[in-house]
Write a structure and sequence with these properties.
This protein is of the alpha/beta class. It has a six-stranded parallel sheet with strand order 7-6-5-9-8-10. The chain is elongated and about 55 Å long. The N terminus is likely disordered.
Length: about 250
């Protein structure tokens, strides 16, 4: 799934939750190349990984902690590192087609140049919790799926289709042609607590520092804002996304 490339055919995933999400998936034997476990480390989490790996006849290698530190770029690997096939992004029209077959209204999240992998991973975790159907990210000037993203998502990455598109503005225009209502976020707009998020929708979350890009903002059907009364008049991108997604969840469930 992720960044820290050994070669073009293998990427790194580390940490217990991210690793278990992959090992518990139906395609684990096709996806996992090798499992590196910290030599001399014995724990319940390690035992669970070993049990799953042996049941699926996956390759396990005892490895010094220094090597795991290197593979994970000194991340919190918890003694577990996997090499896996690269993450496969999904075509947006395939996601929409699947939803139409299920007669389900789309609930998309569009990330306009999110650069922090921890924010991205945290956003994925919340998006999975509230039933988002798909994530849309740009191919350029934004973080993609990396090992840090996978770990921060605590396995949500395995359950959420992610589409990576060349042009967000054109993609939003295409979604609007499909009768999907586009919501964005800014300092001035409708109080998010009044948001009717029912039906086919997509929510745009802007860059951590700059917010939505001007061209994307012009395409939005309605702007939402989160009122604040404190001295700090901005929220972390993942926190703001969480607030908005749970409002959408409440609205769609009512």
């Amino acid at each position: 799934m992720n960044s820290t490339f050994n070669n073009q055919q293998s990427e790194i995933v580390f940490g217990y939750h991210a690793s278990m999400a992959i090992l518990q998936a139906d395609n684990a034997p096709q996806k996992v190349n090798k499992i590196f476990l910290q030599k001399g480390l014995h724990s319940e989490k390690i035992a669970q990984v070993v049990e799953l790996a042996r049941a699926q006849h996956l390759v396990i290698q005892d490895t010094p902690k220094t090597k795991l530190d290197e593979l994970s770029q000194h991340g919190n690997h918890q003694g577990i590192v996997l090499t896996v096939t690269p993450y496969e992004y999904v075509e947006l029209d395939h996601i929409l087609s699947d939803l139409q077959k299920k007669q389900q209204d789309p609930f998309f999240l569009i990330l306009d140049n999110i650069n922090d992998p921890h924010n991205f991973g945290s956003i994925l975790r919340t998006a999975d919790a509230v039933g988002v159907n798909g994530i849309i990210i740009p191919k350029r000037r934004a973080v993609g799926v990396t090992s840090v993203v996978a770990k921060a998502s605590t396995g949500a990455i395995e359950h959420l289709p992610i589409a990576r598109v060349t042009n967000l503005v054109q993609t939003i225009e295409w979604l609007k042609q499909k009768n999907i209502w586009i919501f964005g976020t800014d300092m001035n707009g409708t109080d998010y607590r009044q948001w009717n998020a029912q039906g086919a929708i997509a929510l745009v979350i802007g860059n951590e520092g700059k917010g939505m890009s001007p061209l994307v903002k012009r395409q939005v059907d309605q702007i939402l804002t989160i009122p604040m009364v404190g001295h700090v008049q901005s929220l972390n991108a993942s926190v703001a996304t969480g607030v908005l997604l749970y409002q959408a969840f409440t609205s769609r469930e009512s």
